[in-house]
Each structure stands twice: as C-alpha cells, then as structure tokens.
Amino acid sequence: MNTSSPEGIGTILLAAGAFQFARRFLDLPTRLPGWEPFFKRIWVIFGVLIGLSALFSIDLSNGWVALAMSLLFVFMLWQLKHFQPSRTVILAVAPFLLLWVVGSYLEHYAPKFYKANEGFFDNSIGFSTIWLGTFLVIANRQKKALVKIEQERAIEAEQRRIIEAKKQELEYLVAERTAKITLQKEELEQALVELKATQAQLIQSEKMASLGELTAGIAHEIQNPLNFVNNFSEVSIELIDELTEEQAKPDRDPELEAELLTDLKQNLQKINHHGGRASSIVKGMLQHSRAGAGQREPTDVNALCEEYLRLAYHGLRAKDKSFNAVFSTELDPSLGLISLVPQDVSRVLLNLFTNAFYAVQQRQKQEKTPGYQPAVSVSTRCANNEAVITVADNGTGIAEDVKQKIFQPFFTTKPTGEGTGLGLSLAYEIITKGHGGTLEVESEVGEGSKFIITLPG
Question: In whole angstroms, how large is the CA radius of gyration of the chain?
C-alpha cells in the first residue's frame, strides 16, 4: 500500500487526533510540560512524516506504524499513572489499539486469514469502540471529580493562605498594640509618680498658704502676751528696786517687804502665764507648718476652736483694716479631751473660719446695708460619744449646685488668685479619712452657712 492511500493518511490523522485529544482531556501542558513542544508541532511532524513516506515509498498503513504510535501513546499515558483519569484512558484505548495493531499486521502480512475473519475484526473493532466510549465517559467523570477536588483544595489552600496571612497580620497588630499598651502603661506609671509628687507639693503648698494666712493673726495674738510679759517685767524691776531700798533702811518695814514680795510673785506668775500663752501660739504655728503626718494626742478641742477663731479673724483684719465682725463661741465644757492630730484639725478649723469670715466680708461688700452685722460663731457639744463642732456664719450662703461640688479638689468659688480649691478638699480628707469622722454643710443663699464636724470620742 503506498503512502497516498487513505488508510495511511487515516492512520496518521488518527494518531495526531488521539494525541491532541489526550492533550486537552488530560491537561498535558500542565501535567507533562516536557511533551508540550511535541504537541505544538504535531501536525508539522506528521506532515513531514507523510512527506518523507512519499519520497522514500514508506507504507504508513502497515502494522509497524500503528504499533509505534500505540506504544508512544500508551507510554505518554503511563507517565500520568498517578492521575486516575489517565489510567482509565489506558484501559479504554487498550482493546482498540490492540485490535488496530493486530488488524494492521494481519491485513498486510496474512491477507487470506484477515479476509476469512474480517467480520470478527469488524465486530471486535465496533465492540472496542463502544468500550472506548464508555470508559472515556467514566474518565471524564473522574476528571471532573478530580478537578472539583483540586479546585476545593485550591480554595482551601487559598483560604488557609488568607487565614495564615490574617493570623500573621493579627499577630503583628497584637504585638504592636501590646507594645503600645506597654509603653502607655509605663507612661501612665511615670505620670502617676509625677502626679503623686505634684499632689504632695500642692498639699504642702496649701498647708503653707494656710500658714501664711495665720501669720497676721499670730502676730496680733502673740503681741498681747509679749506686752504683758514686758509690762510685768518692768513693774517687777520697780518692785525689786523698792524692796532693795527698804532692806537698806536701818528701820525696815516687814509688812511692806512682804507686800512687795507678794506683788513680785504675782507678777512673775503673770509673766509665766503669758509666756506660756506665747509659747502655745508658737507651738501651734510649728505644728501647723509640719509636712508629715502627725500623731494623735489628747487635745482640748474647745481651746483649739477658740484660738483659731481669733487667729482667722485677725488674719483677715490684717488684710482689710476696715473689716469688722462679731465672733462668738459656745463651747461645751463637758467635752473633755479628744484623741486627734492637733495640727491637722487646726488646719481644718482655720480653713472653715477663714472661709466664714470671707463669706461675711463678701456679703457686707455686696449688700452695703447699714443694718447688716457680719457674724461668725463656733459651738461644740458632745452627742452619742462624738464631738460635734459647728462653724456658722451669716454670709452669702452656698447654692445647691455648688454644695454638690464643694469638697472636690480644686473647686473654688473665690476669684483667681484668692483660693486654690484644695482647702475644703483637704479638710474633708482629714476629717473623714484621717479621723473617721464626718464633714457636712448646710446652707441657704443669702442667709449663711453651717459646717458641721463630727469626731469619734
């Protein structure tokens, strides 16, 4: 049979078609990239093969060409034996290729036998074609199932990649946020340390400010006992001179000497009394100026109230000579000694008295009424084993909304420069936290205010 016979060309076309079908069906460019150059040039290669067969009189329809093509096709499919559809395709084409190769050999080399059994070969080819179609359908389903599985795996892999990327991003964000929080924590801790230091400085400044308010009152109060000391000292000197003169006389008067000695003793007692008064004022001033926490000690609350009421009044008078007010005391003598920190409670009393005198001074300036008389009072009493101290004034009074905030740090109704807003806040802490007592306010605008302190007995 020559090369121009339809059987030879059909053999080439059948082989080329089979390779192209396998290329598309089994996705060979991806799975067997090394075969891709062959597939791209397959028609050129088979065209050259046909041309060469024509030049050299090669019969392409004999069994050798079919065998070579079949072996090459099966070898190519065997390269994909791990791919289930490829194994199914091998199973599908195996009967067809076997009959094709055997038929080609018998047709060329045993024509009589082929002719005698041509019907058998035709029926077998038909059966193998059905076989081929059936298994190709199965292979196609396997391919679709595998493609679906691969797509699902690809989606899962992409999802895992996205999740991993998100995880890394979240880990980075968490690490970054943790670093920021740690930095903020360190900054807050440092700010807290600075705040505590500033708070201590502010408290000490407030204490020193209240000490400054005491200065004028102390100067006025300490001047009285000093004047008494000076006056009685001068009188005592005169008495000593008279006694010396009397003792120098030849005719001494014992009654006069006894009288002079009695007067001298009384003077010395008065000097001692007023010296003690001055010493007490100085001691109170020193206690008031202490920075640290003091120790509780039995204290005469009545004496403390009376003394700091006078000091607060004279302190304000030193700033405003035109200011005059009535201040009174109603002290319960049965109160006795109360265990407290004197310098702290004195600081509270001074603040309340100073505020009271300031309130009546402001009302006097605002009303300008001749009948108004500024008045501040302090009273003490014992109730339910507690000492109750009430500081009252007939000043401007406190509005209801202001009363809710009056004990808050830095809240003040005074103009800028006249108050820090720490006085009542510190007073509240000293009484409630420092002494376990209470500090309450009762007030009516235009009528006055009352600050009520209770201290455990």
Answer: 60
Residue 224 CB partners (closer than 8 Å, separation 6+)? 274, 277
Helix, strand or coil, per DSSP, at residue 128: helix
**What pLDDT, in 10s, does the model give residues 360-372?**
888 888 866 677 8
Q: What is the pLDDT of residue 7?
A: 54
Domain range summary for the chain, segments of one domain joined by +: 6-163, 296-457
Q: Give the residue among 388, 362, 387, 389 at the shortest CA–CA distance from 374.
A: 362
Q: pTM for the complete prediction? A: 0.47
Q: Report the helix count and the strand count for the chain, using DSSP H and E.
A: 13, 7
How high is the pLDDT of residue 50? 66
Quote the tokens at residue 444: 């009516």
- Rounded to whole angstroms, the Cα distance separating 325 from 266 reads 35
Strand, helix or coil at 393?
strand
User: What does the block give as tokens for 136?
Assistant: 């190709």
3-class SS at 450?
strand
Strands 375-383 and 326-330 turn out to be parallel
CB-based burial, 217-241: b 16+ in 10 Å, e otherwise: bbebbbeebeebbeebeebbeebee
Residue 17 burial (CB < 10 Å; 0-12/13-18/19+)?
Answer: exposed
Cα 307 from Cα 300, distance rounded (Å): 11
Separation of alpha carbons 388 and 438, rounded Å: 10
Q: Which CATH number fits domain 296-457: 3.90.79.10, 3.30.565.10, 3.20.20.120, 3.90.105.10?
A: 3.30.565.10
